[in-house]
Design goal:
The protein is of the alpha+beta class and 280 residues long. It has eight helices and eleven strands. Helix 4 packs antiparallel against helix 5.
C-alpha cells in the first residue's frame, strides 16, 4: 500500500472508502498469516492510541438540525469527521467509490436524546453506576440498561423519518437495502486518528420504511454505550455526555471482500478479512 499525495485512500469493500493520514509516500510492509494481517510501522509514526489523559473533543454545532445529502455534509462539527471525509471524497469526484447517502447531524441526537429530560436523568444515573463499579457484570448491566433506554424509551420524531425517506427517494434509493452508520465527534480525530475506530455501530441490511429506519437510528445512538467504547472514553478522560452521534443512512453495497481492523499500538494492527460480509 502506498500513500499518494496528502490524502491517501484506503479501500475497504463494503465499508466504502476510509481516509488515512499521510504515510510520506513510503511503502508499508504487510505480513500475512492466514486471516491475520499485521501492518508494520511505517517510517514515520502514524497510529496514535489515545493516551491515558483527558482529551478535549471538538465542540459540535448543535443548532444545525437539517438532514443533508452526504455530498453536502462536509462540516465535521455538524456531522462528524467520518461523514465529512466521505462527503469530501464525493466532492472530489470519486462518485463510484462511495454509495449515495443522507446524513443526520449531531443536533438531532441532542433533540431526540439529550432534550428528553426523563431519559437523560436515567442515563446519567446508569453512567454513574458504570463508572464507579469494579464488577464486570454490574458494569455490563448498567450499559445494557442505557442501551435499552435508547431502544425502548427514545422515539424518533415522524418529521425526521419522513425527511430521511424523502431524501433517499430523491437520490433514487427506493427499494434498495440500507446500512445505517454512526458518525460521532469522538472518532477519526486528526490528533488521534485511531480514537473510536470500530467502537460505534453500523447496522445492515435495513429496509426503507419508517419503523426500520427509526429502530436502526436508535441502535446507532445506543452504540455510544457499548462497553468497549465506554471504557475507551473513561481511559481518555472523555465525558460520555459530550459525545454526540450523527447517522449516515446509506445504500448498502454487497462486497466481494470486507475486513475489520483492530489497532494494538503504534507498531501494528490486526485486520481480519472475509469474502462477502464480515461480522465483527
Amino acid at each position: 500500500m502506498r500513500a499518494k499525495d496528502k490524502i491517501p485512500l484506503f479501500l475497504c469493500g463494503y465499508f466504502g472508502v476510509y481516509y488515512f493520514a499521510p504515510l510520506d509516500g513510503r511503502y508499508v510492509e504487510i505480513d500475512t498469516d492466514g486471516k491475520i494481517t499485521l501492518l508494520k510501522k511505517p517510517a514515520k509514526s502514524y497510529f496514535k492510541r489515545a493516551p491515558p489523559r483527558k482529551i478535549t473533543l471538538p465542540e459540535p454545532d448543535l443548532p444545525f438540525l437539517k438532514i443533508l445529502s452526504l455530498k453536502d455534509a462536509e462540516n465535521p462539527f455538524i456531522f462528524g469527521y467520518k461523514t465529512a471525509r466521505l462527503a469530501h471524497i464525493l466532492k472530489e469526484g470519486f462518485l463510484s467509490l462511495v454509495p449515495w447517502a443522507v446524513a443526520l447531524p449531531f443536533g438531532l441526537y441532542k433533540r431526540v436524546v439529550l432534550d428528553n429530560k426523563e431519559a437523560l436523568r436515567e442515563i446519567k444515573t446508569l453512567i454513574d453506576k458504570a463508572e464507579k463499579t469494579k464488577n464486570w457484570k454490574e458494569f455490563k448491566k448498567a450499559l445494557d440498561n442505557i442501551q435499552n433506554i435508547f431502544l425502548k424509551n427514545i422515539m424518533i420524531p415522524q418529521d425526521i423519518l419522513e425527511e430521511v425517506i424523502f431524501q433517499l427517494h430523491s437520490l433514487d434509493i427506493k427499494d434498495k437495502p440500507l446500512i445505517l452508520r454512526s458518525s460521532t465527534n469522538a472518532e477519526d480525530l486528526e490528533e488521534y486518528p485511531s480514537l473510536g475506530i470500530g467502537m460505534y455501530g453500523s447496522f445492515y441490511p435495513v429496509k426503507i420504511g419508517k419503523e426500520e429506519i427509526s429502530e436502526n437510528i436508535r441502535k446507532c445512538y445506543a452504540s455510544l454505550f457499548k462497553p468497549e467504547a465506554f471504557r475507551e472514553r473513561m481511559r481518555s478522560g472523555i465525558n460520555h455526555l459530550d459525545v454526540y452521534c450523527g447517522v449516515i443512512v446509506q445504500e448498502l453495497i454487497e462486497p466481494d471482500v470486507s475486513f475489520v481492523a483492530d489497532i494494538y499500538s503504534e507498531d501494528e494492527f490486526k485486520a481480519e478479512f472475509a469474502i462477502g460480509f464480515l461480522s465483527a
